[in-house]
């Protein structure tokens, strides 16, 4: 979808303000407020031990982009099927998606022994590893119960696959550290498992509960998949282009840990010396800085940017089945927001 020549309108955000999270999420602001209250109540009522950690736990996931996506697609697809408002199943799906995402972040921080996420102290840093592991396990268990109570086999299978993908993605990443033979296909599959699978399921699940056609369901799934992949590619680019202060973690930290991402895969095609630095796990103090410089010199970052833009364009194409309006406009703006992080 080419929107470069589209006239300015309320339906097509075309400024930095228009693609800011606050503006994009405005149409579902009340939905998100209700979701936040429900999640904190659910955690504290079910397990008082976690009451004190509730704010820290659900603050870890940031801007609530994933449940917002559920609500936006829910409203947009409900318009197609004549629903006057979204259903309780839509709302419960948004809660489940946010809980899965939050639990995965908590476990990721434990595995990585991270002290901070987006500049804030992690749950394991504040409450200890034991509480963090138990909190993540408890939230995953709760999502399984909530998912079963949706009583929709198609959605249950869809979300269960996401949880399986998370585990598969972590295994793929762990077993491919410092592996310079990883292909772009390998990288995209790992990125799908770790990031895009949940986003794709969020969008498709919302369409399922709206009762849309199979074509719309698959378009929403593809939208989420491409948006999720674009997000991960951009995230991996920022590891090389943002400062430690901007990232909330040391710049180049993903490469230091041995994660071979899109910019590195492209760089390896042009810079043979990079392979030696990675395979020796940056044994000398200056090796990491040298490797980062080689990635910059190779053109790998720009090629990765182009890959992210292509994913974004593909995501936009999937939205043509929706009616024009604030919901579709925000879904389009989500793509712009992800890609604007490149600048």
From TrEMBL:
It holds the Pfam family polyprenyl_synt. GO terms for molecular function: metal ion binding; prenyltransferase activity. InterPro entries: Isoprenoid_synthase_dom_sf, Polyprenyl_synt, Polyprenyl_synt_CS. Keywords: Isoprene biosynthesis, Magnesium, Metal-binding, Transferase. Residues 1-21 are annotated as: Disordered. Its cofactor is Mg(2+). The keyword RNA-binding does not apply. CDD domains: Trans_IPPS_HT (cd00685). GO terms for cellular component: chloroplast. It comes from the Eukaryota. GO terms for biological process: isoprenoid biosynthetic process; plastoquinone biosynthetic process. Belongs to the FPP/GGPP synthase family. This is Solanesyl diphosphate synthase.
């Amino acid at each position: 979808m080419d929107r470069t020549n589209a006239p300015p309108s309320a339906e097509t955000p075309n400024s930095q303000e228009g693609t800011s999270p606050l503006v994009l999420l405005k149409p579902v602001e009340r939905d998100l407020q209700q979701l936040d209250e429900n999640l904190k109540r659910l955690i504290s009522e079910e397990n008082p031990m976690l009451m004190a950690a509730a704010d820290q736990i659900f603050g870890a996931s940031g801007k609530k982009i994933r449940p917002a996506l559920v609500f936006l697609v829910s409203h947009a697809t409900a318009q197609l099927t004549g629903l006057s408002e979204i259903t309780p199943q839509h709302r419960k799906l948004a809660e489940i998606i946010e809980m899965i995402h939050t639990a995965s972040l908590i476990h990721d921080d434990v595995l990585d022994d991270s002290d901070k996420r987006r500049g804030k102290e992690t749950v394991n840093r504040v409450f200890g590893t034991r509480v963090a592991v138990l909190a993540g396990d408890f939230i995953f268990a709760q999502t399984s119960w909530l998912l079963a109570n949706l009583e929709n086999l198609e959605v249950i299978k869809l979300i269960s696959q996401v949880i399986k993908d998370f585990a598969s993605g972590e295994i793929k990443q762990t077993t491919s550290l410092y592996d310079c033979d990883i292909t772009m296909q390998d990288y995209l599959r790992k990125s799908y498992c770790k990031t895009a699978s949940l986003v794709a399921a969020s969008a498709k699940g919302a369409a399922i509960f709206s009762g849309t056609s199979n074509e719309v369901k698959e378009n929403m799934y593809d939208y989420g998949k491409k948006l999720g992949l674009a997000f991960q590619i951009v995230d991996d680019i920022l590891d090389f282009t943002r400062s430690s202060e901007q990232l909330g973690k040391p710049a180049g930290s993903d490469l230091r840990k041995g994660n071979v991402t899109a910019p590195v895969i492209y760089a390896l095609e042009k810079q043979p010396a990079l392979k030696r630095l990675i395979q020796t796990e940056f044994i000398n103090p200056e090796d990491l800085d040298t490797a980062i410089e080689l990635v910059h010199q190779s053109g790998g970052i720009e090629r990765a940017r182009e890959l992210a833009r292509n994913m974004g364009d593909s995501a936009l194409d999937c939205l043509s089945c929706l009616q024009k309006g604030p919901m579709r406009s925000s879904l389009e703006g989500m793509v712009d927001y992800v890609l604007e992080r490149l600048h």
